[in-house]
Amino acid sequence: MPKATETVLEINLNYLEQNYKYLKSKLAPNTMFLAVVKAFAYGSDQVQIAKKITELGADYLAVAYTSEGVAIRKAGIQTPILVLHPQEVNFEEIVAYNLEPSIYSARILDQFIKYTSSINKEDYPVHLKFNTGLNRLGFLKADVPQIVQKIQETTTIKVASAFSHMAASEDLTEKEFTEQQIQKFKSISNTLDGLLCYSPIKHMCNTSGILNYPDAHFNMVRSGIGLYGFGNDAKYDVYLKPIASLKTVISQLHNLDPNQSVGYNMAYKATHKMVTATLPLGHADGIYRIYGNQKGFVFINGKKAPIVGNTCMDMIMVDVTNINCKEGDEVIVFNEVHTADALATAAGTISYELVTGISQRVNRVFIF
Ligand SMILES: *Cc1c(COP(=O)(O)O)cnc(C)c1O
Does residue 5 lie within any of the structural domains? Predict the structure, then answer.
């Protein structure tokens, strides 16, 4: 890869393949794989990722919002797409683009049956979401008889899958809670199958669920962060490779005398004779203010340069006093060595937030 000459997000599709194969190696041969490509495929590029992951053999895709699924269909991708969080206003597009809604409440179930009836659909695939402890979206076990009755009173929809979501699959100190969620979902699944008289796909595990709860894979697993290279535990660092590298350049160097300030509101004051580098990257690119004031850092010619002062909208300033560098030099914000996870952790957040926050104005380039 040539050195960065402006801010770019490099996406390595070979690493995506490696990550997919590693996660697949954790599954029984007939367990299906759903690739979560919401939020621009975790800040990378939903179309390129959806294409590649479909070529690799993923059975399903999932997005959060309908518009994300529409964008993938417009790129010509035919893989089944689950929309995790639809609203009534989205149903027309969902059906027009052959997307499959998550049905998470009695209200949304009634609304979807009403809509599919009004356009004379038969057996339209839907996915029933169950709440087993996250308390975010979904039906409870007690709702099953009523849901099934509504489904059996219509021919317009068919249950393609039933699923639930773990609240702390990455946190082994909460193993007992997760095991309880798994037991609840098993019990819901049995009741549902018995009443429906057929057996839809069952799925519960996200990436950390795949890695930590092999007995809870059911018929399908849903992976997002693992595909993008993070296993939520250092022991996976050798197997999962971050696919995205954020790079930029030094726009200008400044020599500061002691007590001179840097940036808005004089948030940083030079303690000695210093050199700072200004970089074309700011909170509007996804390097939020939490990374300012020496919480966050970048790497220049192999050396760590802390962010000094407040993050501006389109710029950050970093301390390069002890770094041999010049204007135009490449800067690594994160890559597979200096990971987004390490940077996020240093600022008190998580890799998910950092990578999904890289804004759309940052040019994406692909390594095939
Ligand atoms: C985002 C999401 C996932 C993916 O989780 P990862 O931890 O990124 O693997 C899976 N299932 C649901 C319901 C989600 O919202």
Answer: no
